[in-house]
């Protein structure tokens, strides 16, 4: 099989879908690999690194898509890539299709087999989302602390406080992988941390590690109470299966928050938790609504591509190798976890949550 990795087209995205080490393994297995020139530069990999590993370097997106059957990348295709996709392609990347109906239409119309990293599941865990969730969670308090400064538009509070001066109040919504890592860093920075979650077990796990973190079962009333005192809010709510994030923070709630407080909406890939949330980029990361500074960067780990690419490829490459060695159809048939990742196949939407959100026809993959 020919595997292709294009240079990411999403704004401020510097990760890459395959490392030179991955390429060498694929070539050893007897496959061909096509890499677009410059695809790995942001992650510290030169064209010559890929050539030495056995890849062919090409210079345009069109050449990558024309040559390869398996397209391995990081983020969802951008409009400039839509017409390059066809029914010979298996696309393997983060898709987050629920908020992007135009991409869904392109994938359906072009007959693409589209496998989303974020819906590949093993025992109700998301192994291809986990490494980026860890990074985004750890980034969130760091980013929020920066934007809490006055010169960035925040209320001017140091997250750790100072001798005789209290630290910032950090509210983390959700206690899953992102939430746990957000708490870890915020707690380590000296903040007062509160966590809301719908179930008790994950809160208990947090308290085993961080005894002085305040925890509570999520309710709308409890959320309203915590928002009033929060200097930083970190949303980590994830609905498994690809559905959109519920809008738990209304505009009315935003109005009750402190002017200059910061909301880091890690869930923006799936639509975001605030009624005011909209995707931003690393170079234009924030906006203010109802006095609250919203940070809604849709590819947070892309800020640290040398770390993020390695963490991501460690998780995705076994699946890439399976798709290459067995062929897409057999790999999907033989691996139920991979089959859960198939969102679109041969002109049909095969992810029920995406179909429901976008009011599209759903067809089970087995059919």
Question: What does it look like?
Answer:
The strands form two sheets. This protein has an eight-stranded mixed beta sheet with strand order 3-2-1-4-5-6-14-15, sandwiched between helices. The protein contains 14 helices and 15 strands. It starts with a strand and ends in a 10-residue tail after the last helix. Strand 8, helix 8 and strand 9 (214-217) form a beta-alpha-beta unit. It has two domains: 2-120 and 305-357, NAD(P)-binding Rossmann-like Domain (Rossmann fold); 130-303, Rossmann fold (3-Layer(aba) Sandwich). It is of the alpha/beta class. The longest helix has 22 residues, at 305-326. The protein is 36% helix and 16% strand. Helix 6 (130-147) packs parallel to helix 7.
Biggest sheet features: 8 strands, mixed
CATH domain class name of the largest domain: Alpha Beta
Radius of gyration from the CA trace? 21 Å
Estimated structural class: alpha/beta
User: CATH superfamily of the largest domain, please?
Assistant: NAD(P)-binding Rossmann-like Domain
Helix content: 25-40%
Determine the number of helices (DSSP H or I, runs of at least 4 residues). 14
Low-confidence stretches: none
Spatial ordering of strands, largest sheet: 3-2-1-4-5-6-14-15
Order of helices and strands: EHEHEHEHEHEHEHEHEHEHEEEHHHEEH
Can you name the CATH architecture of the largest domain? Answer: 3-Layer(aba) Sandwich
Mean pLDDT: 96
Give the number of domains.
2
Amount of beta strand: 15-25%
**Gap from first CA to last CA:** 26 Å
The third-level CATH topology of the largest domain is: Rossmann fold
Number of strands: 15
Rough shape? globular
